[in-house]
Amino acid sequence: MNERKAFSVAGLPVVLLLIATAIVAFVWLGGAMGHGPGQPYTVGGAAILIGAISFLVKGLFQVQPNQGQVMQLFGRYAGSVREEGLRWTNPFYSRRALSLRVRNFESGKLKVNDNDGNPIEIAAVVVWQVVDTAEAVFQVDDYENFVRIQSESALRQMAQSYPYDAHDSDKPSLRSHGEEVNAHLRDEIQTRLGKAGVQVIEARISHLAYAQEIAQAMLQRQQAGAIIAARTRIVEGAVSMVEMALAELGKRGVVDLDNERRAAMVSNLLVVLCGDRSTQPVVNTGTLY
Question: What is the CATH number assigned to the segment(s) 103-210?
Answer without folding.
Answer: 3.30.479.30
